[in-house]
Amino acid sequence: MALLSTKCCEHCEKKICAENCPPGALVKYGYTMTLNELMQEIEKDSVFYRQSSGGVTASGGEPLLQATFVAELFARCHVKGYHTAIETSSEVAFEQFIKVIPHTNLFLCDLKPVDTHTFKKYTGGNVSIILENLIRLSEYNAEVILRTLLIPGFNADKDSIAAICDFDRSLGHKIIHFLPYHRLGMQKYISLSKDYPFEVAKVMEISDVEELLRITTKFGIQAKIGSDI
Question: CA-CA distance, 148 to 155, in Å (whole number)?
Fold first, then answer.
């Protein structure tokens, strides 16, 4: 039996061990790219961007943890005339937003519950940071669409959705995206030997979502199901 030390893995970019692992137990995920290399990859689809009015979206992970790189990337995208968007949890220092605001056409911001206790219990994070960042983004007149993952037993109830819509309306937003819960991410938890916290949550039916949609109309907000812009 061969023993493997992973002490050097954090600082190793080549991951040669994964490429030469006979049983395939090691898998290389991701790789490092320079700004020039990434732009070359993006420009392969330049015809599609022009014909579809599409653009470039930075997602993750959390792209604002690399805000300087994203800002430089988006600046170059704007030179080419590409629309730019960021998908973010918004749970970062606002200084990271400031770096990208001048070069970002649209922010797609996650907002699960606005209740501090519920957010902390299920995510371990601080929803106050997110709410404050969203308020400050509105002060910069940034284009923002909130995205809410609907999970039964977590936030897919009338009170939670009403609270989210009330906050959304206070920012002057007119659109919200609802992403109904599914179990496609369960395998990731299993591969990481972690417990899946929402295993007992049921997959949402269309009728359940439609009931929540009626709440958004009371706040003058248009709800869209799914992640397409």
Answer: 9
- Tokens of residue 66, six digits: 């690399």
For residue range 7-36, what is the model confidence (pLDDT) as tens digits? 666 667 666 777 777 777 777 777 789 999
Residues in the chain: 229
Closest among 227, 78, 225, 212 to 152, alpha carbons compared? 212
Report the topology of domain 46-225: TIM Barrel (3.20.20)
Question: How many Å apart are CA 136 and CA 198, to the nearest integer?
Answer: 32
Tell me which residue has tokens 């061990």.
17
- Domain ranges within the chain, ordered by starting residue: 46-225
Phi–psi pair at 149, nearest 5 degrees: -80, 120
CB atoms within 10 A of CB 1: 2
Q: Which of 91, 92, 60, 56 is nearest to 74 (CA)?
A: 56
CA-based angle 92:96:98, to the nearest 5? Answer: 130
Record the pTM.
0.85
Q: How far apart are CA 76 and CA 224, in angstroms?
A: 31
How far apart are alpha carbons 15 and 6 in whole angstroms?
Answer: 11
Count Cβ atoms below 10 Å from residue 150 Cβ, excluding itself: 20
* Residue in 101, 121, 103 with CA at minimum distance from that of residue 112: 121
